[in-house]
């Protein structure tokens, strides 16, 4: 079934006609599935040397030439051991100035527990409007920086000591997942300090200095609105986008100046309420309030704002997340099962549906990681005969939705995808009783595992307590774990190297 595109916004050239799926239930065949979807974390929403000698008195100069060759050979070997600095510059041949090549694998497998951070009582609360707040973590200037209910705190990555702290004027509502340079923006409840209120304050922080850059209230078009509702904060290319179900606005990251505050995105009451970027392109999700529940995904050039394509969300589905911008992948839920992610949909470079990957049961597809036209997902945990939990990592082709392989990642554990080392999926396996957790990489061809980090057995219980329902990060050859701030664990965070 086809449907004409939505009315064009004024003063824009006509788009190329597109074919859109309009009703997922009218497909000629059932969408391909792969088994249970991934659970939330824990199973429950990246020299040589040489020597030589020369002797004799050769009047022809062969001795001097031999000595010269040795010196040149030593210089060459030393330059290779130093990453090619003498021959190609400090960054190495083929690298842009200032870039650093990431190692293909961590250098040391067995780790040690470097530090722990106690869980302060003041963190055991909720965010504005009474919903559980979602902490955000950034890494900058040798610090791991973490949002909390009423402040932002930076910890030294090596020692875990507090480097700086910025109080929030209210209670945290949301924060940008990725900073723009050293600037990051957070949204907070400006009218309440008790854990309930309107999320209408926006503040920018410099992650290098640990100082506030600017602070202002969200502009409102509708006098009946008190905030934007279910708000997301996104940063890219010197801008801060704040998007919600009722309004959206764009600010300059440097000084907080309002750059755009549209009343409507389209003439038919469609407006942007979610977005995701990889720095090169922007995927915007537009919801419509015309009563028919229509929604669209647009790929935009973030620098020019030019629309590259528009994809209509199939009828009966709601976009819940964007696991990947390029290739484009959206996570959706069926409206009769809005409490769970039900499908992943890959979109072609022309803005058409490629494959619908059906997920069964409860799970969290936001843990999906994507690389080179393959999505890697964790299946739901299952109890083993030894009364432990285990699951599998499943690789799915985004072109056709077919499963490429399924891997236990080398152990009977619950595995969660974290990112990639080169093109190899990086997986964290949670600790078990008397046995620390592990980091493994998987061969993208067949899922064969390689252990790259083993956490010590002595801290296995504390590791599991923090990692369960928490977040795990691998940065600079160090593993960081932050637990949910509302839990009753003794420790909030720990780190291994």
From TrEMBL:
> Does Transmembrane show up as a keyword for this record?
yes
The record's SUPFAM superfamilies line, in alphabetical order, gives: Quinoprotein alcohol dehydrogenase-like (SSF50998)
Is Transmembrane helix included in the keywords of this UniProt record?
Answer: yes
Question: Per the record, which residues fall in region Disordered?
Answer: 1-62, 91-110
Keywords, A to Z? Membrane, Transmembrane, Transmembrane helix
Q: Where does the record place Gly residues bias?
A: 44-55
Which stretches does UniProt call biased (Pro residues)? 1-12
Q: Which InterPro entries match?
A: PQQ_b-propeller_rpt, PQQ_rpt_dom, Quinoprotein_ADH-like_sf, WD40/YVTN_repeat-like_dom_sf
Q: Where is the Pyrrolo-quinoline quinone repeat domain?
A: 293-454
Superkingdom to which the source organism belongs: Bacteria
Instruction: List all membrane-crossing ranges.
Output: 67-88
Q: Which Pfam families match?
A: PQQ_2
PANTHER family annotated for this entry?
CELL SURFACE PROTEIN, OUTER MEMBRANE PROTEIN ASSEMBLY FACTOR BAMB
What is the protein's given name? Pyrrolo-quinoline quinone repeat domain-containing protein
């Amino acid at each position: 079934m086809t449907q004409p595109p939505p009315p064009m916004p004024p003063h824009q050239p006509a788009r190329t006609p597109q074919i859109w799926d309009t009703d997922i239930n009218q497909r000629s065949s059932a969408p391909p599935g792969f088994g249970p979807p991934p659970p939330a974390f824990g199973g429950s929403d990246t020299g040589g040397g040489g020597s030589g000698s020369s002797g004799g008195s050769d009047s022809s100069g062969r001795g001097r030439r031999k000595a010269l060759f040795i010196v040149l050979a030593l210089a060459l070997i030393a330059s290779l051991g130093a990453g090619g600095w003498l021959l190609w510059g400090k960054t190495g041949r083929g690298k842009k100035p200032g870039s650093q090549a990431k190692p293909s694998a961590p250098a040391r497998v067995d780790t040690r527990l470097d530090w722990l951070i106690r869980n302060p009582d003041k963190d055991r609360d909720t965010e504005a409007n009474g919903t559980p707040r979602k902490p955000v973590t950034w890494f900058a200037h040798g610090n791991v920086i973490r949002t909390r209910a009423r402040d932002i705190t930076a910890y030294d990555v090596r020692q875990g000591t507090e480097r700086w702290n910025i109080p929030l004027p209210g209670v945290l509502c949301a924060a940008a997942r990725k900073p723009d340079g050293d600037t990051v923006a957070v949204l907070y409840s400006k009218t309440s300090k008790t854990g309930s209120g309107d999320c209408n304050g926006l503040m920018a922080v410099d992650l290098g200095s640990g100082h506030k850059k600017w602070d202002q209230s969200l502009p409102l078009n509708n006098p009946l609105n008190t905030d934007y509702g279910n708000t997301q904060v996104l940063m890219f290319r010197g801008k801060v986008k704040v998007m919600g179900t009722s309004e959206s606005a764009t600010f300059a990251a440097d000084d907080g100046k309002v750059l755009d505050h549209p009343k409507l995105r389209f003439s038919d009451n469609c407006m942007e309420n979610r977005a995701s970027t990889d720095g090169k392109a922007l995927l915007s999700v537009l919801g419509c309030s015309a009563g028919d529940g229509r929604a669209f995904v647009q790929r935009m050039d973030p620098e020019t704002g030019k629309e590259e394509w528009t994809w209509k969300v199939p009828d009966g589905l709601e976009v819940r997340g964007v696991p990947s911008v390029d290739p484009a992948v959206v996570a959706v839920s069926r409206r009769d099962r809005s409490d769970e992610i039900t499908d992943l949909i890959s979109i072609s470079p022309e803005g058409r549906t490629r494959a619908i990957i059906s997920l069964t049961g409860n799970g969290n597809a936001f843990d999906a990681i994507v690389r080179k036209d393959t999505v890697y997902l964790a299946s739901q945990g299952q109890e083993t005969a030894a009364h432990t939990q285990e699951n599998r990592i499943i690789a799915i082709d985004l072109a056709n939705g077919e499963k490429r392989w399924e891997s236990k990642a080398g152990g009977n554990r619950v595995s969660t995808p974290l990112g990639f080392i080169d093109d190899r999926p990086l997986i964290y396996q949670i600790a078990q009783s008397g046995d620390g957790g592990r980091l493994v990489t998987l061969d993208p061809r067949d899922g064969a595992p390689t252990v790259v980090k083993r956490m010590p057995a002595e801290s296995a219980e504390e590791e599991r307590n923090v990692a369960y329902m928490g977040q795990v990060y691998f940065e600079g050859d160090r593993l960081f774990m932050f637990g949910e701030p509302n839990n009753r664990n003794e420790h909030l965070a720990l780190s291994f190297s």
